[in-house]
Amino acid sequence: MERFYTLQGEGVHSGCPAYFIRLAGCDVGCVWCDVKESWNIDDHPRISVQELISDVVESGANRVIITGGEPLMHNLDELTLGLQERGIRTHIETSGTHPISGSWDWITFSPKKFKKPTEEIFQLAHELKIVVFHPSDIQWGVELSEKVSLECQKLLQPEWERQDDMLPMIMAHLTQNPTWRLSLQTHKFIGVR
Ligand code: SF4
């Protein structure tokens, strides 16, 4: 759908330069989705894996974040192995609703209430990022977090439009449960993609 070199704005690697590859296609249907134009694969051009890799190498980036849409609707083996062969770290942001493919240095699992994740993603995730749109999302995230590995980082991130309402409840949870941390969409504060 699009690709561009910017900063990772949210999650554990917030502030790190990263080349984003946004793949088209999503069947999750989040009501608050801010990239609904990604949902229909056929609305976007097909680009070869080799062209994607060449563009990343030319950019000078040392980290790629593959996102969507739901990127695991595509098989990502060839793309991620090709990037890693060139010394580029591979990250994914996924709802975990499709079987995993690809070779990953970092997996951010951001489950959504609108479609159940697979069982395999829980133990593979390095980061569990819960978007908080409603106060009940915090408890929902806590229940899901019982299935991730001990090393997995756990983050609560207020949905952008509801940030002011959700932050007090998130703060209360974090101070009572210090193994969790806050994620903010910093790229939106500083006005970059
Ligand atoms: S999983 Fe992501 S791209 Fe798909 S509907 Fe939800 S927020 Fe949008």
Give a brief description.
The protein is an alpha/beta fold. It is 28% helix and 22% strand. The chain has a single domain (2-190), classed as TIM Barrel, CATH 3.20.20.
Explain the layout of strands and helices.
Layout: E1 2-7, E2 17-22, H1 49-59, E3 63-67, H2 77-85, E4 89-94, E5 106-109, H3 120-124, E6 127-132, H4 136-145, E7 153-158, H5 163-176, E8 180-182, H6 186-190
Parallel strand pairs: 2-3, 3-4, 4-5, 5-6, 6-7, 7-8
Antiparallel strand pairs: 1-2
Bound molecules: iron/sulfur cluster (SF4).
Please provide a written account of the structure.
By secondary structure, this protein is α/β, with parallel strands linked by helices. The chain has a single domain (2-190), classed as Aldolase class I (TIM Barrel), CATH 3.20.20.70. The chain contains six helices and eight strands; from the N terminus they run ββαβαββαβαβαβα. α1 runs parallel beside α2. The protein is globular and about 45 Å long. Iron/sulfur cluster (SF4) is lined by residues 26, 28-30, 33, 35, 38, 68-70, 95, 112.
What characteristics describe this protein?
193 residues; alpha/beta; TIM Barrel; eight-stranded mixed beta sheet; 6 helices; binds iron/sulfur cluster
Strand line-up across the major sheet? 1-2-3-4-5-6-7-8
Beta-strand proportion: 15-25%
Ligands bound to this protein structure: iron/sulfur cluster
Number of helices: 6
Structural class: alpha/beta
Radius of gyration: 16 Å
Strand tally is 8
Low-confidence stretches: none
Nearest-integer average pLDDT: 97
| Sheet having the most strands | 8 strands, mixed
- What's the architecture, going by CATH? Alpha-Beta Barrel
Order of helices and strands: EEHEHEEHEHEHEH
Report the CATH C-level class.
Alpha Beta
- The amount of helix comes to 25-40%
Give the termini distance in whole angstroms.
14 Å
> How many discrete structural domains?
1
